[in-house]
Structures are given as C-alpha cells and as structure tokens.
Amino acid sequence: MDQTFDLKGKRVFVAGHRGMVGSALVRRLAGEDCEILTVARSELDLLDQAGVRRWISEHRPDAVVMAAAKVGGILANDRFPVDFLYENLAMQTNVIEAAFRSEVQKLLFLGSSCIYPKLAPQPIPEDALLTGPLEPTNEWYAVAKIAGLKLCQAYQRQYGVDYISAMPTNLYGPGDNFDLNGSHVVPALMRKSHEAKRTGQKTLQVWGSGRPMREFLHVDDAADALVWLLKNYAGDSHVNVGSGQDVTIADLARTMLSVVGCEAAVAFDPTKPDGTPRKLMDVSRLFATGWRPKYSLRGGLEQTYAWFLDHVEKGQIRFGQSR
Ligand code: GDP
Fold first, then answer.
1. Is the dihedral of CA 287, 277, 141, 321 positive or negative?
2. Rounded to whole angstroms, how far apart are CA atoms 91 and 88?
3. Is ligand 1 within 6 A of the CB of residue 190?
C-alpha cells in the first residue's frame, strides 16, 4: 500500500513518553529515520493550555502521538471520576488543538478498547462505537477517549488535516504496572507466579472462574502497529489495534506458570469478579493494511518475564503485600 506519511527527517513528538505505550513508541521510533521529541512532566503540564500551545509552537513537531493519559483500574476510575474525565479531556484537547495551531501535519490519538459499549458484538468492529451504554465502571475514561477520537475526526472533516485515532486492546509488556492493587491480569499473574515459585507455594490464586476470555497484545507489537498506522493510514475512522486472538484466563494462567517455571497448581477464587465474559477486537481493518503482530502470547510473556526479572534484581519492582 502507498505510504501516506513519510517519517524520514520528521520531528515526532511523543506525548506521554514515560508510560508503557509511550516508552515502547520511543523504542520503536528509534528505528526510524526521524527525530523524537519528548518533554518531562516537570517542564510541561499537559493540563496547562497556554503552556502546551507555547511548547508545541516552539518545538515545531511535524507529527504528534498523543500517548499521555490518566489511566487506572476499576477502583481508581470509581473513586476519582473527575480526574479521569477532566484530565483526559483537557490534556488531549490541549495537545490536539495546539498541534493544529502549529500546523502539525500528522497526529495519532490513542484510546482503548473500553470505548465500546458493554454489550458490543464480539469480535468488536470499529462501527460498534456509540451503539449502546458503556461499562459503568470506566465510563469516565471512555467518554473522554470518545471525545478525543471525535475531535480528531472533526479536525479532519472541518480542516482536512491528517489526524487519526487508534484503539489498542489489552496491552502488556515492559513498563507495565506490577502493583497487585491496580494491575491488570498479565502483570498480576506474572508477579504471583514468580512469588509462588520463589516461596514454593502449591497454588496460584486466579481471580474469578478462569472462563472469561481476553485478547492480549505485547506493547512492542502495539508500538509497531501505531508507527505503521502513522505512516500508512489516513482514514476517517479510528482503527482497532489487537492480536485478533483471545484466550481464557485459565489458559493464560497455565501459560504463565510454564513461562515462569512454577509448578504450582491453578486455584480459582470465585469471590473475585470475572468482569465481562469476552472482549475481543475485530482487527480486520488493521490486518487488511498488511500489518501483523510478531509475538505469540507465550513469546511475549517470555520477553516480559525476562524484563521483570531484570527489574526485580535491580530493585525497581519490590515485593511485599500480595492478594
Ligand atoms: P478487564 O479486562 O478489564 O476485566 O481487566 P483485568 O485484566 O483486571 O482482568 C481480566 C480478567 O482476569 C478478569 O476476569 C479477572 O477476574 C481475571 N483475573 C484473574 N486473576 C487476576 C488477578 O490476579 N488480577 C487481575 N487484575 N485480574 C485477574
């Protein structure tokens, strides 16, 4: 397919470069012939509209990837709805509007699979957006993200600029959150399997029934897909980014134990919630462009476990309380 945006010699601003996705994007963009721009939070607060306008007009990026967001699990979303709605709306609006003012040619906005209705068809196609009520536990975050993708679409329609959006599935990999109180299932089970191995525990506690199905994508594959879209996609609709395959939580737990080399048996904890039974993205739009992920689930978990061990050794991930 024809490339729509050539990164060669371009200045690319990655907003949110300290996060799991932003840091993967910086690693991936290092392989392109472009200049990567980042800014520390202490130097630029993305909530400050005037500051964002000034920084972008001074640094003149050719392209912007909006990977900065206020993120958190179910509990945080429930307790701090204003933070999730207001901060995401403000940060993304500031960046997108300032980019347009400074004549940024290409912008990629990132959302997540939680923008879709709770009862969307599986696998979830892009056009399921706004066809039903959202999952109430993360609607604050989802509403902000929907506004962000609509703002990009509005800039495209009104001004003809190349501002696109991508919606990644559940991501995991280096830089993930391994704090068991707020983590998603992959880092939680990795940490719990590691601890079970270390202490010789006989069982690995897995929340719920083990029957829910989830799709996972390694963050380096996600970053690769995002750079691919930056170069090759200029459409009006947002694009789902996923692996196109899902597994049961029980299978994930067994694969994790094998990757970690832990002999504990899986024990399900029915007092913990299962959440939605299935969440699989329809990735046919992305795959039709020719992109495919490189990691298998097992290969991705092995790579992440190597990173985890390295960081545990360096004292950057600490153990203590576990559930
Ligand atoms: P979700 O995809 O939004 O439901 O978020 P999670 O990644 O937190 O959970 C996915 C599934 O994994 C749910 O069915 C959880 O009950 C299950 N699960 C099993 N063990 C764990 C665990 O230790 N931590 C988390 N976060 N989820 C777990």
1. negative
2. 5
3. no
Percent of the chain scoring above 70 in pLDDT: 98
On whether the CB atoms of residues 269 and 154 are closer than 8 A, the answer is: no
Mutual angle of helices 139-159 and 88-101, in 10-degree steps: 20
- Per DSSP, what are the bridge partners of residue 236? none
Residue in 184, 205, 209, 271 to alter for ligand 1 test, most ligand atoms within 8 A of Cβ: 184
From 65, 61, 68, 67, select the one nearest 103 (Cα to Cα). 61
pLDDT digits (tens, 9 = 90+) for 278-302: 999 999 999 999 999 999 999 999 9
Measured CA angle at 221 (ends 216, 227), to 5 deg: 135
Cα 138 from Cα 86, distance rounded (Å) = 14
What is the model's pLDDT at position 310? Answer: 95
303 forms beta bridges with: none
Question: Which residues are CB-neighbours of 247 under 8 A, at least 6 positions away?
Answer: 213, 214, 216, 255, 297
Give per-residue pLDDT as tens, 250-262: 999 999 999 999 9
Residue 275: CB within 6 Å of ligand 1? yes
Distance 206 CA to ligand 1 centre (A): 8
